[in-house]
Amino acid sequence: MALAFTHTWDLARATGQDEALDPEQLQRMVAAMGAMPEEALRADGMFGPPIDVADDADDQTRFLAYVGRQA
Description:
The chain is mostly helical. The protein is 56% helix and 0% strand. The model has no long low-confidence stretch (mean pLDDT 89).
């Protein structure tokens, strides 16, 4: 599920569409991914290493950085 959710952002970015993720689904993904062991999340290479973000970054930016995406 996390991969499909993240991929919606990937596709929107690649095609120049609205990159805003659904806020309710974003909250569910943040909660679920925080509970997943780091090695399991990144084992298949679909998610890169986490990227540092500013302390005041919004939830979407934090989520994308956690899955290795540069927002």
